Structure formats: C-alpha cells, structure tokens
Amino acid sequence: MLPLTDPLRHPLAMACAGLVLVIGVKVLPFGWFLALPLAALVAYVVAARRREATLPDLIRRSLQLAGGADAVAEEAGQRLLQAQEMGRLTAIQLCCQRVQELPSTLEQLHAGDHAKRSSSLLSVSHLEQRLRQERKRLGRESGSALGRQRERLIQQLERNLNLARQGKEAGSLRVMAVSEHLESVAGDLQAMQVDLRQPVLPALPDHPLDAFEAQSDPRQDPMTVDLARELDELDQLLRDALGNS
Asked: Residue 148 — very low, low, confident or very high, per pLDDT cuts 50/70/90?
C-alpha cells in the first residue's frame, strides 16, 4: 500500500494530474466526471512514489546494505585464501563491518530526532494550528485594542513558525544527504562483489612484504578505497547529526 502524500508538494505529481485532466476532458465520455477523480488519483500515486525519504526509510535501507555487506564478507573469505591476500581480506572485512554498524547508528539518530520533536517548543504543526486560530480571532477583533494586541501575537507566531520550518528543512536536507550516501555505499558494495567474482583481482598496492598494516588499510586497496572514503564521509555526517540531535 502506497503512503498518502500531499501532491501539492510535488510539482511533477501536479503536472501529471493536469495532463490527465486535460486529456480526460477532451477524450473521455462524461469528461469532467471521470477525468477529475482520475487526475486526483494520478496526483496521489505520483506523489507517494516521489515522497521524501524518512529516517525509518534509511534504517530499512541500511539493514538491506548490512545484509549485502555480510554476503560480500563471506564471499571474500571464500575467495581470498592465500597468505599474501590476508591484508586485502582484512580491508574488505573492515569495510563490511562498518556497513553492518550503520543500522544501529541510524537508530540512535532516529531516537534522538524523535525525542527532539517530542520536546520541541517550536512544533510546526502546533504553530500552524495556533496561527490559524489567532487569525480567525483577529477577524472578529479588527480595529480594537485587543485586535492590535492580537496582531503582535500573530507576528510573533509567524516568526516562530519560520524558525521551526527552517529546523525542519535542515532535518530534511540531512536525511536526503544520508540517503544519497547510502546509495553510493550500495554501488561500492556491488562493485566490490563484482571484483571478487573476476578471475583476476585488481593488483594489490606495492608495500613491503611485512607491511600487513598498510596492506589491510581499506583506503590503500583499489578494491575498497571508494567504499572506505564513502563510509568516512557518511560517518562524519552521522556524527555531526548525532551531535546536533
């Protein structure tokens, strides 16, 4: 079942609905009676499919990636058996372990975000409701001393609402950034799995024979360097988010 999403917030949904409405009125019998509900249905379906990701969405996606990382680590253990490949195996396992830790980190962020919303004095929905109520009252008191006091209250509510919306927008941008990083992690995991299935693996970096620590560094191995860097950026983003939650 698709989640119900406001189509007015999605220009593509409204454009599709408008196109269906125009075509429906011109083509369908009883045009207005059929085209209008059909256009509304199209708008809601398109909006539902294009809705913004939420933290629970990211947690579900990270769980999928954790399962994929577990499979890649297992496949690497079966493929990399030679002594000179132990450093590479360690690098892959370190990256996969970091991917497997993502769901718990996102759970912490979700818990902190929920607590922050619950305790916030600047709730967007509450302020919007309060602003509507005060504007209705102002209509009945316009021109009076009480009306002027009501106008000052409305101005303060409007300022508070703008602040609350800015905070909400910052949270949405953060979720969008994490979502983009998760998809990059998915691509890097897939690329690593493809490499593991090739008859010839990418060449190991040149290190002294006893430099196991260097060989096992995910940022040095061409098989793991992209995933390691992506995880570094994602970790920094999540640390900043946890620090602000």
From this structure: confident
DSSP the chain: -PPP--GGG-HHHHHHHHHHHHHHHHHSTTHHHHHHHHHHHHHHHHHHHTPPP-HHHHHHHHHHHHHHHHHHHHHHHHH--SGGGHHHHHHHHHHHHHHHTHHHHHHHHHHHHHHHHHH-S--HHHHHHHHHHHHHHHHHHTTSHHHHHHHHHHHHHHHHHHHHHHHHHHHHHHHHHHHHHHHHHHHHHHHHHHHHTSSSPPPPP---TT-HHHHT-TTTSTTTHHHHHHHHHHHHHHHHHHHH-
pLDDT the model gives residue 161: 76
Of residues 29 and 199, the one with the higher pLDDT is: 199
Domain range annotation of the chain: 1-51, 52-244
